[in-house]
Amino acid sequence: MTQASTTDPYCPLWRRLFALFYDLFAVLAIVATVGLVCQFATHGQLITTGAQVHIAWWYQPLQGLMVAAYFLVSWLRGGQTLGMRPWRIRIAASDGARLTLRQALVRLLIAALPLLLLWFAPAWGLRAALWAVAAAWGVWFAAALLDRRHRAVHDLVAGCELRRVA
Fold first, then answer.
1. pLDDT tens, position by position, 51-88
2. What is the pLDDT of residue 136?
3. What own/partner pairs with CB < 8 Å and gap ≥ 24 does 147-153 have?
4. Concatenated DSSP letters of 81-137
5. Smaller CB count within 10 Å for the chain: N or C?
6. Residue 7 CB: number of other CB atoms within 10 A?
7. Nearest to 47 by CA among 32, 37, 57
C-alpha cells in the first residue's frame, strides 16, 4: 500500500467529487443492509403506518453510526474509502502521516454538520431542507477552489488533505 507523501500532488476538487459519488454506492449498500437487518430484527415493525408514520427512535442514529463507521474505518485503516481507490486518492495529515483518530472524528463531524439543517424539514419542508444541506455542502467544498492545497472546510479544520497517489 502506497502512503501519501508531501511530494504527491494535491487532489483537485473534481477528482474528490467523483470519488465521493462512488462512495455514495457504498453508503447506499450500508443503509440498505442495516435496514434489512433491522426489519428482520423487529419482525417488520421498524416502520409503522397509520394516521402517522412512525420510525423506531433508534433506527436513524444506527444508520448514521454505521455510515460514520464506514468512513472512519476507511480513513484510519488505509487512508482510502472504496470511492477513493479507483481515483488514486489518499487522505493524510498535512505532514503526510496517517490520520489520527481525533483528526478523522473532527473531519467526519465537520463534514456531516450540514445534515443538521434537516431538523428544519418540518418547518421548511423536506425539499427546502435538502436544498439547504446541498448548498451548505457546496460551500464546504467550494473552499477547495480557493485553497492552494485544495482542502475543503472539513479538511482545513481537521488538519488533513487529500493527495493523488501513484
1. 887 888 899 999 999 999 999 999 999 999 999 999 99
2. 97
3. 148/10, 149/10, 150/10, 150/11, 150/12, 150/13, 150/16, 152/13, 152/16, 152/111, 153/110
4. -TTTTTTTEEEEETTSPPPPHHHHHHHHHHHHGGGGGGGGHHHH-HHHHHHHHHHHH
5. C
6. 7
7. 57
The span from the CA of 138 to the CA of 16, in Å, is 13
Q: For the CA atoms of 126, 131, 132, 134, what is the dihedral angle to 10 degrees?
A: 130
Q: And the C-alpha cell for 150?
A: 485544495
Predicted pLDDT of residue 54: 85
Phi, psi of 91 (to 5 degrees): -95, 140
In sequence order, the β-bridge partners of residue 54 are: 48
pTM for the predicted model, two decimal places? 0.88
Residue 58: C-alpha distances to residues 14, 39, 42, 62 (Å): 36, 13, 12, 6
Coil, strand or helix: which one is 148? coil
